[in-house]
Structures are given as C-alpha cells and as structure tokens.
Amino acid sequence: MLPLPEGHAFPMAKYARLHERVAAMAPALGIRLREPPAATDEDLLRAHEPGYVRAMAEGSADAAMMRRIGFPWSAAMVERSRRSSGGTIMALRAALEGEGVAVNLAGGTHHAGPARGGGYCVFNDAAVAARHVQAHGLARRVLVVDLDVHQGNGTAEICAGDESVFTFSVHAARNYPAVKPASDLDVALPDGTGDAAYLDALAAYLPQAIERARADAVVYLAGADPFQGDRLGYLALSKPGLAERDRQVLEACHRHGLPLAVCMAGGYAPDVEDIVDIHEATVRQAAAHWRRAAGAPAL
To answer: From CA 178, how far away is CA 262, in angstroms rounded?
Structure first.
C-alpha cells in the first residue's frame, strides 16, 4: 500500500482487498503466500539507467518527472515500487525453479522506461524480472504477454533491440500512451471491442508470439482494465470474457511447457470490488493451472 492524497485517482485499495481475498481462499486452493524482497539496485540497473534509479532513491526527481509518474515522491513509494518488482522476480524464479506458475499480487508496471516512469509506474517489473532470471542463468529467453488495456510502452522501450526478451501487447489503439514505441508484436484494437473479437484476436496472435519468442518462460500482465466501463480503458470485456482470456494464456503456456509469472497490472473500474473480482479470478485460474501442472486432482 502507498499513502496517497485524498481523492487521488489511483485505486490503491485494490491491493489490500485482493490480498484479503487470496489469503481467505489460499488453504483450499493450495496457495502459499510469500512476502517478496525489494528489488536491489543491481536488479533495477539491468532495466533502468543509473541516474533515474538514483533520482528515485534519493527523491531528487524534478516535478515534471513525478507528474508523469502520477504519484508524489516518498520513501514509501520507492519501497513499494522495489517490492513490486521484487514480487515479479520472486514469481518468475519460483515458476522456473519448479512451481510452473506463480503470481505477483501487484506488478504490471509497464509504462516505466529506461530513464523515466509514467502512468503510475516507477520501475518496470516485467523487464527487471526478465533480466534477473537471465543474469542468474535460469532462462535465456523470456516472453512478455501484456494484456493490460494500455500498450506496454516502457517494456517495449527497455527491450528494443534485445532479441532475448520478446514483447507482445494487446491494447486499445486510441488509449494511453499517445506515443507507442513498437513492441515485437503489437495488436491494437478499436474502441468498444468486446469478448468475442478480443478473444479471437488473442487466439490468432498469442501462438505467433510464442512461436517467434522461442522463450524459456513467460511474464503475463493480466490487466483488469479491458473491463467494460473501466474509467481508463476503451474496451468492453465482461468478467467471464476476462477469465477466458486468462484461461487461454495459461492453457497456451501449459501446452508449450512454459513456466510463467503472472502480475496484476492496471484496473480502474468505478467500483474497486469489480477490479478485485477480476484479479481474484486470475489468481484462481493460476491456482487451477498449478494443480493441473502438478498432477493434483481438480477442485
């Protein structure tokens, strides 16, 4: 959690509510909750420039940089951002070291680029985690499947020219950010795209991304913001449609034997409980995927 000014637009309360729900269902679903370590400077510097990491750590970033991020600077903001990246590192390591799938209950901060943050994102957890497992010899190639409603501009920028990290983004064409650096595979959808058209596009392009990436592992950004009525999203998926989206990604990873880390990414529905419902369903799908991969009986 991050203390924010009264009336701030970011739905910070969703994280505590999601944790409460996951903790309640954990015994029945075989979920083990762990607190992640903070990402180290060494971790962050594989994805971000030294001056930017230093500015965030010291609180020396100028007002324009902090406006672009959307949070006021505080030591708590930096710690939370390090922990968010640490959660995706821990999830990806766990997946690669035998769990098959693990979930960060935060993360998905895909607007943070090499030398800047943006869109409520300070450090890019997907890029940081991918570079971490590569540096530690756990994976050579990583696929980032970004299904937040917004294009993953920061991830695309960090990983541009790096053939070992394949970036795949399905997003609303007209939405933030205005400038969208090219991912390795971008699928831009028109306003109002609903379940059927979205799922058809995912079914068509996800196999292409997997084939082209030749990856050893996947980081999956399961954004809640393609949901119909989301304040910052222009698509119109239902909750069952988003659950089917998750199932498609998990099933594809299962077929190809790909370990994956799942992170939550964005969600800005007017009712925070709708956001939490969507994220909870993603966690439930991941737990079912884990049971299947482990050969455990279905619940």
So the answer is: 26
